[in-house]
Amino acid sequence: MRVLALDTSTEALSVALSVDGHCRSFDEAGGPRASQRLLPLCAELLRTAGLQFADLDLIGMGAGPGAFTGLRTAASAAQGLAYALHLPVARVDTLMAQAETAFALLHSDGTVLPDPVQAEPDTVVLVANDARMGELYWELFRAQTSGWQSLHRPTVQRPEHAVLAWAEVLADLPEHLETGVLPRLLACGNAWSEHADALSAAFASHASDNPRLFALNRAVLRAVACTPSAAAVARLSLQQHAAGLTVSAALAQPIYVRDKVALTTAERELARAAL
């Protein structure tokens, strides 16, 4: 199967081509350049493989959450290609793709890696990225032999609220309810550097009397800094296709977790006055 995967949900631009489980990818700086570079980079990737757009079977897109403009860029490209080529689209959760980028579980063909990087089955992975306006996007996943299981839907919150929400999700894990023991915890994303002060203060305030947050803070201190790779989007797209979860071009919409994308002038002035 031939899958073209795209992700422009962060400051990076990533495209990948998976052909019968063998993947090649191009990655470069994105941001404002992404809308101009995305399709030419896809064409270049296909050309290096001796293929054309008409040879594709599936389009995979990093659907979000992420930067509003970046999500629209990937969705517009995916929709345009899918309409023109009459192809299905896999809408991949970008935070899941980020977990798969940092701690790959599966080969491109969906078979289990013999030695997954740190994330053995039942490991819990926290993915969190800067969402601007003093907030972060996050989602918690459990690693399974069949792939990633989301333990909480993608959410955007202020760091101090996110920390408490993480503690609640961990408290509800079956093994914790039964034995009080937590699974291995890992973390990835850029929230740890972008919100270092707020997260440190929140952990310091609550971790001393909450063993779940103490354990999570240790994972955060070793967090993997990465962005979602299109190679991971391609692997997850193949899983969606196998499960019958792809959508038509018309339904290839981004995953938004908030409608507001910028502070008002008054809000920015209030924030400056508080410093």
TrEMBL record:
Record-level GO BP terms: proteolysis; tRNA threonylcarbamoyladenosine modification
InterPro entries noted in UniProt: ATPase_NBD, Gcp-like_dom, T6A_TsaB
Keyword Protease among record annotations: yes
GO CC aspect terms: cytosol
Keyword check for Hydrolase: yes
Molecular function GO labels: peptidase activity
CDD domains listed in its UniProt record: ASKHA_NBD_TsaB
Gene3D superfamilies: 3.30.420.40
Pfam families membership: TsaD
Domain spans labelled Gcp-like: 35-262
Key words, A-Z: Hydrolase, Protease
NCBIfam families, per the entry: T6A_YeaZ (TIGR03725)
Protein name: Peptidase M22 glycoprotease
